[in-house]
Design goal:
Elements (H helix, E strand, L loop, with lengths): L2 H12 L10 E2 L6 E9 L15 E7 L5 E2 L8 H7 L5 H4 L6 H11 L10 E5 L5 H8 L3 E5 L12 E7 L8 H10 L1 E10 L7 H4 L14 E2 L2 H10 L3 E4 L4 E4 L5 H10 L3 E5 L17 E3 L2 E5 L4 E9 L2 E8 L2 E2 L9 E4 L2 E4 L1 E3 L2 E8 L3 E8 L20 E4 L3
Parallel strand pairs: 5-6, 5-7, 7-8, 12-16
Antiparallel strand pairs: 1-2, 2-3, 3-4, 4-9, 8-11, 10-11, 13-14, 14-23, 15-22, 16-21, 17-23, 18-19, 18-22, 20-21
Helix pairs in contact: 4-5
Bound molecules: zinc ion.
Zinc ion binds next to loops.
Length: about 400
Amino acid sequence: MQSSIRAALQALDKDRPRPGLFTPRKCKMCGYEAEHFDYCDFNKACNGYEFGRSGILVQYFRCRACEYIFTDFFDDWSSEDFSAFVYNSDYVKADPDYTGLRPRQMARSMATVFSVTKNRLECLDYGGGSGIFAEEMRSDRIGFQVYDPFSQPDRPDRKFDVVTAFEVVEHSPSPVATFDEMLSFMEDDGCIIISQSMQPDKITEERANWWYVAPRNGHIGFFSDTTLQRYCESRGLTYGRNDSYLLLYRTDNALHVQEIKKNLGIATYRTVLYAPRQSFNTFGEWHEVEEIDGRSYRWSSTHKICLGHYRFNQGMNTIEIPVAAVINDDILKECIIWINASFYRATWQNGKIQATFMNSETRSVPVLIATGKPIIPAELGLNSDTRKLGFAVPTGD
Ligand SMILES: [Zn+2]
């Protein structure tokens, strides 16, 4: 890195008042608390340290609720700052495939995803840069326009059957606004196809050593299934993915969405889990079945509860646990679901606990949930109940 560029970058960085090092930030995706995750050098690119080290550290945070990882380093950058320090003439060295190879590969890959309906579709490549991908698709007689806030800022004033966004969302300093804007271009019976790398299973071990955490590539935020499921839930969308592509849609009534789902091999499943009816009580975690107004349910009595064995299909699975009552608001605030020894953050909203996970093979596995510590209402003077109570779940009958 030229010393003049380093000095300019340092000046840019120094001018900005920042919250303390370990002060939690507000998650840019869900608004919950995000805590310090790791640092890396500004010059870290996906392909390593092509430009040496800058000596300027970029701090990343991870949300305790939705797992989104992000930095606020670029939050007050102008487009001129981005053009000067990230998307400059050296950018191609940090991302050599950007100029042609990747868009052409994408076009070849997408040509197999759009099949019978392809020539009837109107599509938008969002963040499509120089437009190579859209050009390739048009040569295959698939209607594609490009919109890129940076390089092709003429905003289309219509909606599209399919919106694609390849290697886009991880570059956004305000991801919800970016997703919402993509959504504003999607027809109600359309879909959004996204490609970017998802957080790996061992992200909490790899941290910023993960190759994709690369400020020099302009990589600002990183998603997990929980992050995206939570966003989709808030917008009435279904979320699914395979190893390469993410798919967001409101309905799969339209033929082209069914076709894209099938060709991408994306299957989504939803399973509702209930308190076990029988005296299934691995840790003594359930109180006896109680009846209220003809509805039966059980209170949890420990912070670790087994829900029993469930069979999950291969593909994207969302599980839902209806909650009849909670002893206080904190009990389910940061709960975790264990599925066959892997754990996933769960969200609690609209009267249900939810978690999403990718299942590699159809199988029957145990499901456990970890919550906050149950309390004894009588000790707190809430009522005369002397049992430890956490949350109540209906039994499945
Ligand atoms: Zn979050």
